[in-house]
Amino acid sequence: MNPPASAHPRDVLLGSHAGLVVLPVCDHYSGVEQRMRKSLQLQAEMIEEFGACVFDVTLDCEDGAPVGGEADHAALVVALAQAADPRARVAARVHPVDHPAFAADMATIAGQAGSRLAHIMVPKVESVQDVQQAEQALLAAGAVDLPLQVLIESPAAVHRAFEIAAHPRVQSISFGLMDFVSAHGGAIPAEAMGAQGQFTHPLVVRAKLEIASACHAYGKVPSHCVVTEFSDPQAMQAAARRASREFGYTRMWSIHPAQIRPIIEAMAPGAEEIERAARLIQAAVAADWAPVAFEKQLHDRASYRYFWQVLERAHQTGRPLPPDMQPYFDERRDAHRPATEAQR
């Protein structure tokens, strides 16, 4: 029995997977107070520009907190998160689970700002046991619904990517390129950390594909690593395009404000692709989701699903949608909000 034509395409096409994690395509990291404030201001300005929150701001404790000043930095992260635009997506990166400041980070940040945060990023995750430790810290802080994102940075962690991705608290896995290369004791050349070399060295390529595959197997979001050539927007955009189109990544880190727009541009569908997807979804709705002939090709729910996800990606990247499609997204304005327990 076909669903009614009035049913939401996401429910029809994704079914039990309709609650899969949907995140902005860019995650911007900032750890110095002045830069954190500027990042949040830029985020607010781009919310006004696009009508949606098109990138996360992750306030960084791991690389941002001065040695000995971890508690003060965590308190600053709490204050900034609480003062941010209510429409914004703000997150925090804490210290690794084996760092002396980890427990205090979680107690302060998750305990005081957990309801305001989109997620907490845990770096240097080696195993699912590290995820469990982080989850216990969240529960102890009272942040029972706060998702975790994790950063995989070693060959052993890559080996365990599927097990880590399967944990219900994990929302996204990021790839830590620099530490991964360094972990090989000089066996991988420095060129593999560059905007181009990271897409050609076999061990780096293998790691990226393992992480992307693990995430897609469990409905999680694979987040691509940094590009250090922050003054070269063309290199940034080319890397983001390869990460998206060749490696299956649906999200990418930014470490400089100049990288945000190139990432969004690279991961956004083109205007013609959006228009074609909208016309096909319109035809599918008119046919009550039965197979249709479209542009001399036969389409059914398998291809409808793909083209619906094109429209979702357009919405995530602030691209204008055809008028007939916009109401579907007006009804789902919670798509960029933190995932609920039911979604996880």
Beginning-to-end CA distance, first to last residue: 28 Å
**CATH-derived topology of the largest domain:** TIM Barrel
What's the CATH superfamily of the largest domain, by name?
Answer: Phosphoenolpyruvate-binding domains
Supply the number of structural domains.
Answer: 2
CATH architecture label name of the largest domain: Alpha-Beta Barrel
Q: Structural class from helices and strands?
A: alpha/beta
The geometry reads as: globular
**Sheet of most strands:** 8 strands, parallel, barrel
Please estimate the helix content.
Answer: 40-55%
Using DSSP, what is the number of strands? 10
Task: Supply the number of helical segments.
Answer: 14
Mean pLDDT: 91
Order of helices and strands: HEHEHEHEHEHHEHHEHEHHEEHH
CATH hierarchy, class of the largest domain: Alpha Beta
Would you kindly provide a brief summary of this structure?
With 344 residues, the protein is of the alpha/beta class. 44% of the residues lie in helices and 12% in strands. It has helices at residues 9-14, 33-50, 70-83, 102-113, 128-140, 155-159, 161-165, 177-182, 202-217, 233-245, 260-267, 271-286, 301-316, 326-330; strands spanning 26-30, 55-60, 90-93, 120-122, 148-152, 170-175, 221-224, 251-254, 292-294, 297-299.
